[in-house]
């Protein structure tokens, strides 16, 4: 029993050291970049989306808003301003931003906890709202906005 407690304590100590180091790295990056910690978190979320996507990486509207800002910074321009006149839903805007960040259908499906086929259907509905032809690529259109 004592060895279990000892190994558990060692595991917790190791994880604490990891998190402390990560926090210090975030603080350094925040100081260098001159931006808020929430934007640093959004940058980390974007990195996670590209490396190891999972459902629940982005948890609430504030995090989605910060992720939109980071994607606009990295991929140029304010996509929200360009899509405002098309009256897209919040979920459709999220999908467009993820396409802007060059995420594929499978990754988007994992993030939204839906089937990849549902992503295709959602993209088709957005294409219709944007009045794109069947031959036009929504991904390319969004990335070039």
Automatic annotation (TrEMBL):
GO terms for biological process: regulation of DNA-templated transcription. GO terms for molecular function: DNA binding. This is Helix-turn-helix transcriptional regulator. It comes from Bacteroides intestinalis. The lineage of its organism: Bacteria, Pseudomonadati, Bacteroidota, Bacteroidia, Bacteroidales.
């Amino acid at each position: 029993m004592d060895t279990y407690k000892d190994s558990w304590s060692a595991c917790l100590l190791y994880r604490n050291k990891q998190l402390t180091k990560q926090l210090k790295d975030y603080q350094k990056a925040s100081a260098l970049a001159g931006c808020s910690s929430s934007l640093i978190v959004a940058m980390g979320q974007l990195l996670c989306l590209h490396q190891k996507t999972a459902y629940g990486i982005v948890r609430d509207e504030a995090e989605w808003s910060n992720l939109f800002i980071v994607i606009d910074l990295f991929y140029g321009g304010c996509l929200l301003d360009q899509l405002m006149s098309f009256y897209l839903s919040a979920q459709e805007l999220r999908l467009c931003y993820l396409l802007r960040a060059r995420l594929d259908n499978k990754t988007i499906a994992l993030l939204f906890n839906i089937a990849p086929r549902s992503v295709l259907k959602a993209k088709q509905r957005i294409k219709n709202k944007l009045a794109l032809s069947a031959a036009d690529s929504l991904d390319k259109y969004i990335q070039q906005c």
